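From the methods appendix. Each design record in this collection lists the tokenized structure first, followed by the designed amino acid sequence. Records were kept in a plain field format so they could be parsed without special tools. The example shown here is representative of the layout used throughout.

RECORD:
FOLD TOKENS (171 positions):
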């Protein structure tokens, strides 16, 4: 039921890095959701005509392709690059200057955590949004400490991802 629904987004601004179950963290999750007012931020981006440039870094081809299709259905989102290797994240950020970079935490070879700093060095205006299956609080804290602007779970609904991208872009 709803009492076991997980808080799908972990926000650095709110300090909600628990990634736990809504039943346990219901008050905190509702405060986070209300403070971000996701829906209105998304409408503002669409109404202002702003195009949010997105890059995707994930080692799963099917996921990258699916994300491309989901994001391409949104008028205000454009996927400008993708790669299956974390070590290429900074290069992509420097070359394409995305507004938001979706970054998987756990990848073969170089981890997503290792490239957050280099991404910001290569493109200081890019905002990193972690896309992960890991509900390990230590991973979330490490990513946020290194500058990620938010964390979204891979089992989140497509609309939640789109809303999170718009919220991270809005600041």
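DESIGN:
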């Amino acid at each position: 039921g709803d009492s076991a629904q997980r808080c799908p987004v972990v926000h650095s601004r709110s300090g909600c890095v628990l990634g736990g179950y809504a039943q346990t963290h219901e008050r905190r999750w509702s405060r986070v959701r209300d403070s971000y007012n996701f829906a209105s931020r998304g409408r503002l981006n669409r109404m202002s005509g702003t195009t949010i440039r997105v890059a995707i870094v994930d080692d799963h081809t099917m996921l990258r392709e699916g994300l491309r299709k989901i994001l391409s259905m949104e008028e205000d989102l454009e996927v400008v690059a993708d790669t299956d290797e974390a070590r290429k994240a900074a290069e992509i950020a420097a070359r394409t200057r995305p507004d938001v970079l979706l970054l998987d935490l756990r990848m073969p070879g170089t981890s997503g955590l290792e490239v957050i700093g280099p991404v910001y060095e290569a493109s200081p205006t890019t905002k990193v949004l972690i896309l992960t299956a890991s509900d390990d609080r230590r991973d979330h804290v490490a990513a946020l400490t290194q500058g990620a602007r938010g964390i979204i779970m891979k089992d989140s609904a497509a609309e939640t991802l789109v809303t999170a991208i718009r919220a991270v872009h809005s600041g």
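APPENDIX NOTE: The longest helix spans residues 22-36.
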